[in-house]
Specification:
By secondary structure, this protein is mainly alpha-helical. The chain is built from 1 helix and no strands. The protein is rod-shaped and about 65 Å long.
C-alpha cells in the first residue's frame, strides 16, 4: 500500500478487513513542530544578516 492508500501495482484504493477504504497517512505533528522551529531560526538568522549588512 502506498502513502495515499492505493495499491502500488494497479492503483486501486485498498479496502480494509472490515470493508471500508483505507485512509491515507498523515504527516506527524512533530514534523510540523520541527519545520516551524527551523523557519523561526532561519528568519532570525536573516534578521541578523540584514542588521550586519546595515551596520
Amino acid at each position: 500500500m502506498s502513502v495515499v492508500g492505493t495499491c502500488p501495482k494497479c492503483g486501486e484504493r485498498v479496502v480494509g478487513s472490515n470493508g471500508t477504504t483505507v485512509r491515507s497517512q498523515r504527516i506527524p505533528w512533530h514534523f510540523w513542530v520541527f519545520a516551524g522551529a527551523a523557519g523561526i531560526y532561519l528568519a532570525w538568522r536573516l534578521v541578523q544578516g540584514l542588521v550586519a549588512l546595515v551596520t
